[in-house]
Amino acid sequence: MTVNLLDYDREGLIDFLVEMGEKPFRAKQILKWIHQSNQSDFNQMSDLAKNLRTKLSESSVIAMPQVTRDHTAADGTRKWLLSVGSGNGIESVFIPEANRGTLCVSSQVGCALACAFCATGKQGFNRNLSVAEIVGQLWLANKMLVKDFDRQPLAKMQADIADPQIMYSVRRVTNIVMMGMGEPLANFENVVTALNVMLDDHAYGLSRRRVTVSTSGLIPAMDRLRKRCPVALAVSLHAPNDPLRDHLVPINQKYPIKDLLAACQRYLQDAPRDFITFEYVMLDGINDSASHARELIKLVRDVPCKFNLIPFNAFPNSEFRRSSSESIRVFRDMLMQAGLMTTVRKTRGDDIAAACGQLAGRVYDKTRRTAKENIEAI
């Protein structure tokens, strides 16, 4: 049976090699070829013995999702639609900035949590992504970025971007946010194995502070993550009280805010950062009033945190509207005056539907269930 080596972190790759009679140190060499050199041809792995290359060619592959669409926005944001079989597609987004390049990675085909303001949740859920399909998004992004960087002069790439502040000064991904399609912690084992690859010095060597997992609040999985692979954590809060959050983020009916904040406090005991990021989408007339801000300030007073206010990004058949710029400014200022570090996320890639909450891909929904039933299944 042929295996996909993108499915393995270092420990898994060692086990695979030992089973075929090879030395464990070969795993480090292979990881470097795959993830640092973006090599998928075993014959090109020149420091491996010829007989090992032959065995690898006969028993394994290095296969990632296939790119079916590649769009670049006016601000330089790039979105890939990737085929993962059976007519399903996922989306990954690369966000270039002056000193870093952030890749937004998907973890599932669709999402079962059905958050009211999210395009992915409206499509239903098909399946979890494999480790290879998660890591493959990073592999592909680096491969394509390096290729394009080498092919085009830097000045030409900068001239093609409408915003002069956005520059391709990086040629590889430097930061990961698990904020694409799906709930990462609902695909726990595959996500943790993928994180191990991202953090491994012989693979991508990313700092734990530069890898962020976003969750809607799956508390048992949050507790497991802090013990298994603590990286930066972002929590999709979006409301200052349970009744409102029950509507916006239905998983709150199972894991209410009080319990969620307690889990955040526990996570900080092992986290690489000394704060939790709370994501808060700004919905006109829904959660953006001064009274909501005051309630939020009181709610998180004992949790070291940062707020990321996200202007709502519209998608077809959405019931919400984006809060006005003035409402967002007032809300931000109230939080900051209360001593809470607060940023407003700049909308990137909305002209190609690559902004936060807009990722939809192609999902053949297998759930056909209500939001309540989806919650019970997690």
State the total count of DSSP E strands.
Answer: 14
Report the major sheet: 10 strands, mixed
Structural class by secondary-structure content: alpha/beta
Name the helicity range: 25-40%
> Residue-averaged pLDDT, rounded?
89
What does this entry look like structurally?
This protein is α/β, with parallel strands linked by helices. The chain contains 13 helices and 14 strands. Helices cover about 35% and strands about 20% of the residues. The protein starts with a strand and ends with a helix. Strand 9, helix 7 (about 190-200) and strand 10 form a beta-alpha-beta unit.
Defining key terms:
378 residues, ten-stranded mixed sheet
Question: What topology does this entry show?
Answer:
Elements: E1 3-4, H1 10-19, H2 26-36, H3 50-59, E2 60-61, E3 66-72, E4 78-83, E5 89-96, E6 101-104, E7 108-110, H4 119-122, E8 125-128, H5 131-151, H6 154-159, E9 175-178, H7 188-199, E10 211-215, H8 219-228, E11 232-236, H9 242-248, H10 257-267, E12 276-282, H11 290-299, E13 305-311, H12 325-337, E14 341-344, H13 371-377
Parallel strand pairs: 1-2, 6-9, 9-10, 10-11, 11-12, 12-13, 13-14
Antiparallel strand pairs: 3-4, 4-5, 5-6, 7-8
Helix pairs in contact: 1-2, 5-7, 8-10, 11-12
